[in-house]
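stage 2 :: seqdesign
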């Protein structure tokens, strides 16, 4: 069966996107189409904050993009060597919270020790943070302009100080329409479509509805995380399955289960 994943491809050590490989194990032919692009913001301000770990209780990363913003700061900063020897140790003495294995892997590559990666979404990470010994210093939260309110609100309600800084903004991928047109013309209507974020839904839904026509009611719609599921419900699309963690394994099991039940 053909399934469509609305995300960019990321090759692993085996030279293949792990989602494509994992879905293939279940007999599913996956195609990835990127729907998002990113523009980085406020990197000088972020770099300045990173140079003062003594002012913070730790870091929060809820997406790979926020870690990439940190990497860009290090690349542009002539004091990269200082980061390696001094700042890294100071930040590692604090908590570095992350959502998902992909984000944790990037954090690890820059020499930081991540925790909370088994949290599949911002809400579960917030619960994890709230269960830890609170710091009197604010947690530094580099994020996108479209960040949800869940994590900030949950921390605020528990009296955990947090300082957010917008380090990137999400924009539509320039090739969305062309790539979707090509897919539908060659592959036809997919058995399932997976949306990975509310913004990805926002930028791609109109094109998908137009290409799918009346057949959209027969496509099994999958959401990664509760915020995407809520966005889908608001848009009027029924959600067949919500993957609680952004992992190939969780998604593959869910899609296979939904499609098998549909066939039977």
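stage 2 :: out
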């Amino acid at each position: 069966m053909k399934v469509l994943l609305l995300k960019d491809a990321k090759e692993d050590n085996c030279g293949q996107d792990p989602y494509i490989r994992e879905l293939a194990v279940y007999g599913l032919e996956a195609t990835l189409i990127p729907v998002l692009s990113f523009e980085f913001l406020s990197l000088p301000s972020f770099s300045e904050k990173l140079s003062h770990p003594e002012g913070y209780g730790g870091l929060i990363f809820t997406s790979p993009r926020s870690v990439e913003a940190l990497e860009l700061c290090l690349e542009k900063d002539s004091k990269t060597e200082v980061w390696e020897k001094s700042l890294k140790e100071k930040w590692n003495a604090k908590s570095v919270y992350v959502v998902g294995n992909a984000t944790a892997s990037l954090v690890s590559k820059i020499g930081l020790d991540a925790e909370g990666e088994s949290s599949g979404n911002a809400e579960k990470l917030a619960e994890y943070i709230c269960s830890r010994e609170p710091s009197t210093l604010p947690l530094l939260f580099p994020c996108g302009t479209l960040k949800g309110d869940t994590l900030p609100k949950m921390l605020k309600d528990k009296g955990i100080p947090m300082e957010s800084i917008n380090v990137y903004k999400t924009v539509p991928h320039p090739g969305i329409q062309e790539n979707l047109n090509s897919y539908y013309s060659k592959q036809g209507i997919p058995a399932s479509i997976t949306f990975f974020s509310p913004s990805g839904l926002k930028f791609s839904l109109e094109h998908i509805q137009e290409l799918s026509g009346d057949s959209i009611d027969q496509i099994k719609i999958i959401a990664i995380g509760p915020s995407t599921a809520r966005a889908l419900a608001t848009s009027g699309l029924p959600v067949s399955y919500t993957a609680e963690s952004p992992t190939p394994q969780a998604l593959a099991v869910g899609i296979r289960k939904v499609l098998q039940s549909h066939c039977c």
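stage 3 :: structure notes
- Residues 248-263 form the longest helix (16 residues).
- The two ends are 15 Å apart (CA to CA).
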